[in-house]
Write the structure tokens for this entry.
Amino acid sequence: MKILLAPMEGVVDPVVRDLFTRIGGIDYCVTEFVRVTSTLLPKKVFYKYCPELHNKSHTSSGVPVFVQLLGSDLITMGENAHKAAELGAYGIDLNFGCPAKTVNRHDGGAALLKNPDRVFQIVSSVRRAVPQNKPVTVKVRLGYSDKTLTQEIALAAQEGGGHWLTVHARTKEEAYRPPAHWHYIKEMKDQVSIPVIANGDIWTTTDHKRCQEVSECEDTMLGRGLMATPDLALQIKKGGPAVEFQQWRTLLTNFMEESRQYRNETYAVQRTKQFTKLMARTYDESAQLFEAIKREKQYETINNRVQDFFCKREILPREERIS
Ligand SMILES: Cc1cc2nc3c(=O)[nH]c(=O)nc-3n(C[C@H](O)[C@H](O)[C@H](O)COP(=O)(O)O)c2cc1C
């Protein structure tokens, strides 16, 4: 059973990939999408999205990272995929799920699902451009506005040479509205012989089990669920109880510090607010912490608030015991 950390633009950056793969349970990562238009991108763009290229495209704990490309031009998609591979990308993942208006208007992301032959052409072009030992994988939604082309989409991914297919079980128009329709993943899986990876709305170990049953997929990709519960992949693989928020002090401290080193203090401030908000779905304490920092702008102040928050919580139970 494989678990992938989902690509999430503006959320899953190299810092998150590093910290989360150190927690464990994750088998592969995918970068945020690299937008390909009509040019061959310079090296620095690939290094920016995937600094792991300096480490043979693996996180510090040894988990492989795919570079994700988003675009529709057959020539430049091939050229950029070739370049990413040359720079050492473990593999290339192709994004056919992005719902963003500007991306779709410019013929990219989920808009391509309206015409599965375009998916086939793009996957084929990238497959031809990348050395055979590097996997080319495909990530899709169930369709653009309806689910009538799911089987054609799955076949297009396979026939184009996709090594595996990840399916986010919603259409573009369904955006992120629950529920995810896992049973459609099974229909797509029945069409193809390549592995299919189920994705969408796996928030708990129970969701994971249910998703595996309904989709009949062994392998899954976790996005927001992992951000809310950073050891979700580990819980799925090893069992055991969920850890308490108190135990995430080091994670949050490292998250702030590494985000600052990766970009700057403003970036770290924004990301820390985002992360505590995402974790609030699982932890009430994280909601409280978010409330305590949401209006703050200074890195130092937020860092102090985070440390105070955990210290108070460590001291409180002792005081309660004494009284
Ligand atoms: C903020 C955000 C950014 C995302 N960025 C990407 C992206 O860059 N590439 C991609 O293929 N999917 C992207 N996705 C979709 C996720 O990879 C995933 O398919 C979706 O969130 C459903 O999985 P989940 O319910 O486990 O979060 C993004 C989703 C979110 C919420």
User: Anything to note?
Assistant: Confidence is low (pLDDT under 50) at residues 316-323. The chain has two domains: 3-238, 245-322. The two ends are 49 Å apart (CA to CA). The pocket of flavin mononucleotide is lined by residues 6-11, 32-33, 68, 95, 97, 139, 168, 199-202, 222-225 (CB under 6 Å).
